[in-house]
Design brief:
- The chain is mostly helical.
- 74% of the residues lie in helices and 0% in strands.
- α1 runs antiparallel to α2, α1 runs parallel beside α3 and α1 packs parallel to α4.
- The longest helix is centred in the N-terminal third of the chain and has 27 residues.
- The protein starts with 11 loop residues before the first helix and ends with a helix.
Length: 118
């Protein structure tokens, strides 16, 4: 008899991989935002940014244990979406129509790739 843990069957693994890769994209985007805020200085935002970026890398490595590289790695592109949103909110950056169209394409692509995973 196979030892199956609740919530850990074969259908949950790809979902966990996707959730972790999205978390990785958020961590790395926040890290990059903090680097930008640090403005080339060695300060608290720079250090916290490095920690966030490192956490993103570790989370990515863990995510790859739970899904296909061909599905998970392209989903890291959602980091561009997160960066665009954070740049607008925290850095008062302007979003153009081209930004919106490009962001929509990234989101659609990520949904198509992630939705193809069984």
């Amino acid at each position: 008899m196979e030892n199956v843990q609740p919530g850990r069957d074969s259908h949950d693994k790809p979902k966990l991989g996707i959730a972790l890769i999205l978390l990785s994209a958020v961590f790395t985007s926040v890290g990059q935002l903090l680097w930008k805020i640090a403005d080339g200085q060695i300060n608290i935002p720079l250090l916290i940014g490095c920690i966030c970026y490192g956490a993103g890398a570790v989370t990515m490595m863990i995510a790859f244990r739970f899904g296909k590289l061909s599905v998970l790695h392209p989903m890291l592109s959602l980091g561009y979406v997160f960066a665009l949103i954070m740049g607008t909110i925290f850095l008062d950056e302007h979003i153009s129509a081209m930004h919106i169209m490009g962001t929509a394409l990234i989101i659609v692509g990520a949904i198509m790739i992630g939705g193809g995973e069984n």
